[in-house]
Specification:
The chain is of the alpha+beta class. Helices cover 36% and strands 20% of the residues. The chain is built from 10 helices and 17 strands. The strands form 6 sheets. The protein has a 7-stranded mixed beta sheet, with helices on both faces. The radius of gyration is 27 Å and the shape is globular. The protein starts with 10 loop residues before the first helix and ends with a helix.
Length: 406
């Protein structure tokens, strides 16, 4: 045997082979981690979907089943409340979600918006609910849950402006729990039930923001450039509210932005005029927030942790935020509920039932079939003599945010 033809593996060869093996291992490890990261992101964005979990799926509304003369809703497909279609029937997880967003400045809620996020079609609709909207609510029972208490809280019947809904539930929660955080959650869950009973819409998630959080958010994103529609001057020492703004385009800090969105005395139609200004401000704010960068994201997280109460989990917040990036301002739409003032003095807002339900079924109904008007409860049970009702002059489609920026 010719030994000279047999390759030999010396020490040098072993060292070189070992170096290559370690390099390959490091490279494979890095590639594996990158692959795992993108796999997790893919699964999160395409497989994970927040559950449909309306706040009122438990036997929470204590009033009799309302028969549906249209025959659209079968009695077996309604909740014990009889108010809406079973949330587990006719809805697809991941397609759409409803959010109740409330701005709070002490006492009754100051701003209420119901948001429909159509994830499937990349559309967002925001319904501003006038705070003086008159409603009637039967006795409501806030069910126990992980984020509230261990026993149900019952809230008595009342007819009032809808902005009293949160404090009604909050006060009942304080009496039951002696805990402000739990009472806030109970107040929001109760207000969600009020919204459902009034409009027939399920409320999946809620966000409760106090004015301190609003001011901080505006300051941390560097303020907002906005065209103030008029000179605004108003003082209310009891609320420690002092509004003094000049008309015209200017850069608003957090305190000035709060003054803008809370001012209502100078508008001819009171809260409806204020809502119009709030919607224009929302368009400017959303345009800025949708330009996401690390500063904005940091501001939002800091803002949320200190000033927000919500039943949106951190995981859900990430998912909703990632989906929101797919929505253009032209596909974000705002509405103001149609109606008119009544009472003596004119301090209650009555809704036009037919047109309100038309807006809801076109833009805010997550079900596959229309919600019948019989399943809504407007105007506190009062028969209102509408003096200015004109069906040909009622805005059903609202405005897109891009149009408000023009």
């Amino acid at each position: 045997m010719n030994r000279s033809n047999v390759p030999r593996l010396g020490k040098g060869n072993n060292k070189n082979t070992g170096s290559i093996s370690v390099g390959k291992i490091i490279l494979l490890t890095i590639l594996s981690l990158v692959f795992a990261f993108f796999l997790i992101v893919y699964l999160f964005l395409n497989i994970y979907k927040p559950p449909i979990d309306p706040m009122n799926t438990a036997p929470a509304l204590d009033f009799p089943v309302v028969p549906d003369p249209s025959g659209i809703i079968n009695p077996t497909d309604v909740t014990k409340s009889g108010n809406v279609i079973d949330p587990n029937s006719g809805r697809v997880v991941g397609d759409s979600y409803t959010f109740l967003i409330v701005g709070y400045s002490g006492g009754n809620t100051d701003t209420m918006m119901l948001v429909m996020f159509d994830v499937k079609d990349n559309k967002v609709s925001v319904m501003s609910i006038p705070r003086d909207t008159y409603v009637t609510i039967p006795s409501l029972n806030v069910p126990p849950s992980a984020d509230t208490i261990n026993t149900a809280v019952t809230v008595g019947s009342w007819s009032n402006k809808i902005n009293a809904g949160f404090m009604t539930g909050y006060n009942a929660g304080i009496r039951a729990t002696k805990d402000e955080d739990k009472a806030t959650k109970i107040g929001m869950r109760y207000l969600g039930q009020v919204i459902t009973y009034t409009f027939g819409i399920p409320v999946d998630r809620y966000v409760f923001i106090d004015t301190g959080g609003f001011r901080k958010l505006i300051d941390q994103i560097g303020g907002i450039d906005f065209d103030v529609p008029m000179d605004m001057n108003y003082d209310d020492p009891e609320q420690n509210l002092h509004i003094h703004l000049k008309q015209g385009l200017q850069h608003l800090n957090g305190d000035q932005a709060e003054q803008l969105v809370r001012f209502r005395e100078g508008y001819a139609n009171a809260d409806i005029g204020r809502i119009s200004t709030q919607q224009k401000f929302m368009a400017v704010l959303m345009k800025k927030l949708l330009n996401f960068n690390l500063t904005n994201i940091s501001s939002l997280f800091d803002f949320g942790s200190q000033y927000m109460t919500t039943n949106v989990s951190v995981t859900e917040a990430g998912w909703f935020a990632s989906k929101l990036l797919n929505v253009q301002l032209a596909d974000m739409r705002v509405h103001t509920l149609p109606g008119e003032w009544f009472g003596d003095p004119l301090n209650f807002y009555a809704l036009y039932g037919k047109e309100t339900m038309e807006i809801i079924n076109k833009y805010y109904n997550p079900y596959k079939q229309d919600i019948p008007e019989v399943n809504s409860h407007f105007n506190g049970g009062v028969s209102v003599n509408f003096k200015y009702y004109d069906p040909n002059n009622i805005d059903i489609d609202g405005n897109t945010l891009d149009s408000l920026l023009q």
